[in-house]
Amino acid sequence: MAGPRVVMYGVGAMGSLATRMILEKGGRIVGAVARSPEKLGRDLGDVAGLPERLGVEVSGDGPGVVRATRPDIVVMTIASYMPEMYGPVRACLEEGANVLSLSEELLSSWRTSADETAELDAVARKNGVTLTCSGHQDGYWVGLVSTLMGTAHRIETVRGSVTWNVDDFGPELARDQMVGASPEEFTSWASTAKRPPTFGRTSLHALAAVAGLTVVGSETVSRPELAAVPLTCKALGTTVEAGRLIGFTDVDTVHTAEGPVLVLEMTGKVYAPGESDSNRWSLVGEPSLELHNDDLPTHLTTCSTLVNRIPDVIAAEPGYRTLDLLPPLRYRSTLASADPPA
Ligand SMILES: NC(=O)c1ccc[n+]([C@@H]2O[C@H](COP(=O)([O-])OP(=O)(O)OC[C@H]3O[C@@H](n4cnc5c(N)ncnc54)[C@H](OP(=O)(O)O)[C@@H]3O)[C@@H](O)[C@H]2O)c1
Predict the structure, then answer these.
(1) pLDDT, position 242
(2) Which residue lies with its CA nearest to atom 21 of ligand 1?
């Protein structure tokens, strides 16, 4: 069977990496969408840094590309939060395309943007297509942790402590992490009611759903991560002076009706030399358990997870399908072969 026909919506750091992985697994890329004038009109292979041309011209007209190419799926790697995601996602769904995104909020947005989520769910159902978000969280902050929880008899708390390097990603995420801001700017942003939902909160909401737990309350405490000495941010092409932000840490706590308390301390910052990603989870209960994955290449697992999810999203029932409504994440040796009969 031929591989799925894919439109790449967003050709930044993650979109470029995912382009290579999709092609290597037999996906057929039929369209590409970007925003900045310097990318428009160029070949996708060139924009994505691949050694060959792909015969796909990068366009600024997302809905037009989807209408003209009728893809099996749109892989959208443009933004983190609902306000920026809503328009492009809705347009693709209205054109009758499935959408798979890396948006951290849309991993589980029923509690953070309820009205917009209900609207996108309704548009997806009406058009017979699916909206899902995946990425690093799918495997390392939800899937592995829910499996750990599944090996416990009784759970009091589950606590994660994870770090990732802003410079493994593009400028979108570096701006999200307020790299270069002053501590005062961070404090005023973090304390406003308009602050977008933390990545940790939506991840814990996704984890609760997969674990069959009912969220009854969520709180966040945040702190800035400051440069001790001037540090180069590759993602932004700037130097962060000592005393200014290289990122921040959120500690999210989610309370559940059934009892288990879920906590995630997440640091996203520009690393100093010698630092590396970590993913450590402790479960307190019977028995108490630990899960550690250190030195993770989070940017690679982000995109490989995204690509491995493509068949699940194409096969899913229409609507907004969160991870609890999908099969467990699994390896795909190829996107081109049909799934075996159930
Ligand atoms: N869930 C996860 O595991 C995970 C992991 C990594 C990243 N992410 C998220 O994925 C997103 C992309 O990350 P990245 O590292 O690839 O960022 P990036 O390098 O900054 O790329 C984002 C790209 O999106 C494009 N874009 C933004 N708005 C657009 C629009 N309305 N129409 C068309 N293109 C648009 C930009 O295009 P131009 O360059 O043309 O302006 C840019 O190239 C971020 O929000 C990030 O937080 C999630």
Answers:
(1) 97
(2) 12
Atom of ligand 1 nearest to the CA of 134: 1
Nearest CA to 135 out of 316, 246, 296, 317 is that of: 296
**Nearest atom (ligand 1) to Cα of 173:** 47
Distance 279 CA to ligand 1 centre (A): 23
Per-residue pLDDT reduced to its tens digit, 288-322: 999 999 889 999 999 999 999 999 999 999 999 99
Task: Quote the pLDDT of residue 339.
Answer: 53
Q: How many helices (H) and strands (E) does the chain have?
A: 12, 15
Other Cβ atoms within 10 Å of 281 Cβ, number: 22
Tell me, in angstroms, the distance from the centre of ligand 1 to residue 124's CA: 22
Task: Using CB atoms within 10 Å of the CB of residue 229, give its burial: 0 to 12 exposed, 13 to 18 middle, 19+ buried.
Answer: exposed
Mutate to test the pocket of ligand 1, among 7, 16, 35, 177 (most ligand atoms within 8 A of CB): 35
Q: Ligand 1 within 6 A of 11 CB?
A: yes
Say if ligand 1 is within 6 A of residue 17 CB: no
Half-sphere exposure in the Cβ direction for 200 (13 Å, CA): 26
Ligand 1 centre distance from Cα of residue 174 (Å): 11
CB 109 within 8 A of CB 47: no
Under DSSP, the state recorded for 335 is: S
Cis, peptide link before residue 88, omega less than 30° from 0: no
DSSP per-residue letters across 250-316: EEEEEEETTS-EEEEEEEEEPPPTT---EEEEEEEEES-EEEEEES--HHHHHHHHHHHTHHHHHHS
Mutation test residue for ligand 1: of 59, 66, 78, 100, the one with most atoms within 8 Å of CB: 78
pLDDT band for position 337 (50/70/90)? confident
- Give the separation between CA 132 and CA 78, rounded to whole angstroms: 14
Confidence of residue 194 (pLDDT cuts 50, 70, 90): confident
The answer to pTM > 0.90 is yes
